[in-house]
Write a structure and sequence with these properties.
Layout (H helix, E strand, L loop, with lengths): L8 H8 L6 H7 L4 H8 L4 H17 L10 H11 L14 H13 L7 H16 L4 H14 L7 H31 L1
Helix pairs in contact: 2-4, 4-5, 4-6, 7-8, 7-9, 8-9
């Protein structure tokens, strides 16, 4: 099944990579509250501390998490400077497997958001199906789903995950319509 092109390549890249934050936005998203400071202070390594703060800042900015190899160097430097950590002490090759996922769970709780899990995915699929059946443009469906997730304080998944769901329901609905047309044509031809 080929996926519908909902966003342009440039828009997909913009969606799938951390935002480029202005100095004011960066200061706001990476601001360290007492509760955040407490969480960071309980982490053991400088890498974990910086990784946690970067994920926190990105999530505040766009309600999404990103893979470590997409962290922006200027944001790594900014977070390290805020925490008073030397860049030489940071090794993101050690920030993998369960550590980022544990940090994401903690950030969701800290910011009172829900994860995009199987239950949310079922709800979103129902929402997508309804929109597809009303012949709403795939791009419009995509943005309506983002709006729903944001309004319900739910983590926003990757472009790929949303696009797959939207594509699946467009293809299923198209198949359903073709079957109805074929059945009616068969009835007329008899």
């Amino acid at each position: 099944m080929s996926r519908l092109t909902i966003l342009t390549d440039e828009e997909q890249n913009e969606f799938d990579y951390p935002p480029t934050l202005s100095p004011d936005a960066k200061a706001l998203c990476f601001s360290i509250t007492k509760e955040l400071e407490s969480k960071i202070n309980h982490l053991r390594t400088p890498t974990n501390k910086v990784g946690f703060l970067i994920q926190y800042g990105y999530f505040k900015a766009c309600k999404r998490f990103f893979v470590v190899n997409r962290f922006r160097q200027e944001d790594i430097e900014y977070a390290a400077r805020l925490l008073g950590i030397s860049l030489r002490k940071i090794d993101f090759s050690q920030y993998k497997k369960k550590i980022p996922i544990d940090h994401q769970d903690a950030i969701l709780k800290l910011l009172d958001y829900r994860p995009f899990d199987e239950n949310i995915e079922l709800w979103i699929e129902k929402e997508v199906r309804q929109r597809v059946e009303h012949f709403i443009d795939p791009r419009e469906v995509f943005f309506e789903i983002l709006h729903l997730l944001h309004g319900q304080r739910i983590e926003i998944p990757s472009y790929h995950r949303l696009a797959e769901s939207i594509t699946r329901y467009y293809i299923d609905y198209e198949d359903k319509l073709i079957k109805i047309i074929d059945e009616r044509l068969d009835t007329l031809n008899q």
